Amino acid sequence: MISFGTDGWRAVIADTFTFANLRLVAQAVADSINETTDTTKQPEVVIGYDTRFLSDRFAIEVARVMAGNGIIAWLSRSDVPTPAVSYNVVDKKADAGIVITASHNPPRYNGFKLKAPYGGSATHEQSKRVEQKLQHMEMEGRGPNVMDYQRGLDTDMIRRFDPTWVYFQHISDLVNLDLISSSEMKVVTDAMYGSGRGALPAILARTRTKVTEIRGIMNPGFGGIHPEPIVKYLTDLTAAVQREQAHVGLATDGDADRIGAVDNLGNFVDPHHVFALVLRHLIENRGMRGDVVKTISTTYMIDKMCKAYDLTLHETPVGFNHIADLMMKRDILIGGEESGGIGVKGHIPEGDGILMGLLLLEVIAQANAPLNEIIEDLQRTFGPACYARNDVRLSKQLPKNVIVEKLQDTAPTTMNGQTVTRVNTLDGIKYYMADDSWLLIRPSGTEPVLRIYAEAPSHADVQALLAEGDKMGHSVIS
Q1: CA-to-CA distance for 138 and 148, rounded, in angstroms?
Q2: CA–CA distance, 306 with 157 (Å, rounded to integer)
Q3: Nearest to 452 by CA among 437, 432, 433, 467
Q4: What is the mean pLDDT of residues 250-254?
Q5: What is the pTM of this model?
Q6: Which stretches does DSSP call E strand in 93-147?
Q7: Ordered structural domains, the chain, with CATH
Q8: What keywords sit in the KW lines (predicted)?
Q9: In this predicted model, what pLDDT tens digit does every residue of 416-433 receive, in sequence order?
Q10: Per-residue DSSP letters for 438-478?
Q11: How far apart are CA 473 and CA 470, in angstroms?
């Protein structure tokens, strides 16, 4: 059964993610596009892919199916960041975007991200429509319409192009490259062998920034790591920052829509801090205004900042698609999640690790201070805030709503010596304490795993909350 999650379809290569299944999914998307597109113009789709095994071949097959259904396929010439594909959907006024990528997942996975005409992820309704088309195809015993690749090129139904040109220009207009250039920073960029390779060095080549890129070659196995910019996979970046005596290290995930960083001392800078630093910069230094949106698992520093700056804060379930929905409906200044997907006003409603890396450089240049000192000032003003997450595998799986109801019924009055002031069941169950600390328990909907998040004034308090969350989670299963 092929089903779409919050950001498309992902599966193991050669298991479920096969050429045959991919062509079926592409046909379902083509059916949906042809059914909903204005008949006065020929529909168009922008297609990109990452550095994973066979991603380029998979992308060609998608283009062949689109062409076989009368849809012009703008196909990237090489691997490309997901945000570049998304921006080109808007720039070309295309009807959809498709990216062959499994983002930060292990190398054995590949995936199919579906983008809407506004450049963000397809809505839940759009994804469900594709799933329904798949079911109808199965019931009818109907296969995909596929055009020969060379014929597609000859008839201009398949158009190879470079999506990065207009994208680089657009995001360069969203940052102050002159300010960044004036600081003459040393920067290490880490593409983690993903499709963000070369992006930051190319943009910063127009400045006086000294850039060293690591893990920027094609390596479909990602050097034995997961291409996820979290501390356990960034030891190479930490070492490079220290070796180069750089001001900062910037890491993007497998398809460059997420950001992670390392400061001048080699300390990991998580997305919570990147989010908070950029928000403060946009307000205090750029004089920008607007609402703020964050997922339920994101730092309480954002809450404190919105209160201090008199900004309206929206909290959503986990998943950037929820943030994107609000970015299209309201005047959102910035929106972000703890996993590193962050988007800002003036851009598409999409997380963008490349843009956020550039904005972090702007933060450092504006402050004219080492990043570790900037973070210390942020913590003094809006902290202290320490954060950690554990994924706990359970002996058996229960429905997500059953686990949440049990946890709600047995909600404690105190945790880690602090009074529980309220409980939130927006996504999983979140307990708020009197000292601003919190614990979130989110059961996976697809596997027997509890995702346990905690934030508190000290690392010791965070670990104590995580331990309590572990016990609470196991107690409802036993």
Answers
A1: 23
A2: 48
A3: 467
A4: 97
A5: 0.94
A6: 96-100, 109-115
A7: 9-164 (3.40.120.10), 173-382 (3.40.120.10), 386-477 (3.30.310.50)
A8: Isomerase, Magnesium, Metal-binding, Phosphoprotein
A9: 999 999 999 999 999 999
A10: EEEEEE-SSSSEEEEEEEESSHHHHHHHHHHHHHHHHHHH-
A11: 5
> What is the token pair recorded at 477?
């299963």
Q: Which two tokens stand for residue 88?
A: 């080109």
Q: What's the pLDDT at 357?
A: 98
Of 462, 408, 460, 472, give the one whose Cα is nearest residue 438: 462
Q: Share the mean pLDDT of the chain.
A: 94
Helix 353-367 to helix 164-174 angle, to the nearest 10 degrees? 30
CA-wise closest residue to 342 among 400, 281, 385, 430: 281
- Those residues with Cβ within 8 angstroms of residue 286's Cβ, 6 or more apart along the chain or in another chain: none
Q: Judge whether 404 and 287 are in contact, CB under 8 Å.
A: no
Return d(Cα 126, Cα 38) in angstroms, integer: 16
Where are the extended beta strands (E) located within 311-399? 313-316, 332-336, 342-344, 386-393
Residues 249, 242 contacting (CB under 8 angstroms): no
How far apart CA 265 and CA 286 sit, in angstroms, is: 27
pLDDT for res 40 = 80
Name the percent of the chain in helix, strand, coil, to the closest 5. Answer: 40, 25, 35
pLDDT computed for residue 446 by the predictor: 62
